[in-house]
Design brief:
Order of helices and strands: HEEEHEHEH
CATH topology of one domain: Nucleotidyltransferase, domain 5
CATH architecture of one domain: 2-Layer Sandwich
Strand order of the largest sheet: 3-2-1-4-5
Structural class: alpha/beta
CATH class of one domain: Alpha Beta
Number of strands: 5
Shape: elongated
């Protein structure tokens, strides 16, 4: 029969010492798991911010720098409306925007429309948002391929 393992030493009188639990923690497996999780999150984090896939039209305008995160309305190729990443019907758009922004007329709202969608549909959504009292409504577009936003700005020294 096997005797239990004790962390105490055998005393000179032949008696065993009291059982003392081992109070050391091996952190190597914890560090291994944390490093694996770190790598997983580093790889997957950029994939989670994609949103609704749309092909934006290209423009020469400089980018807008806003300090706070705007509310994004997206119209895909089929004309379906998304607020952030959730689908919404046209008649429910204004109440949803007012609920999200707390009816704040200064809330920043971006409208993203696929380049292949009917322009009238984009204007219809923008007019709904504007008529609801929102003053900061902007269209989103991409800079032309091969040109940066800085090179798309007109140069003041190049006037004729």
């Amino acid at each position: 029969m096997a005797s239990p393992v004790y962390s105490g030493a055998i005393r000179a009188s032949g008696r065993r010492g009291r059982y003392r639990p081992m109070s050391e923690i091996n952190v190597t497996p914890l560090v291994d798991v944390m490093l694996v999780l770190l790598v997983i999150f580093m790889v997957t984090a950029p994939l989670l911010t994609v949103g609704v896939p749309v092909e934006l039209p290209q423009t020469q305008a400089p980018p807008i720098n806003e300090p706070k995160e705007p509310l994004v309305i997206t119209l895909n190729r089929e004309g379906v409306i998304y607020v952030q990443e959730s689908t919404i019907e046209t008649d429910a758009l204004v109440p949803k925007l007012q609920a999200i922004t707390g009816a704040n007329p200064d809330a920043v709202i971006y409208v993203r429309g696929d380049k292949d969608i009917n322009y009238g549909r984009v204007l219809e959504v923008m007019s709904l948002v504007s008529s609801a009292g929102f003053r900061k409504v902007s269209l989103v577009a991409e800079a032309p391929k091969g040109r940066t936003a800085a090179s798309a700005r007109p140069d003041s020294s190049a006037r004729h």
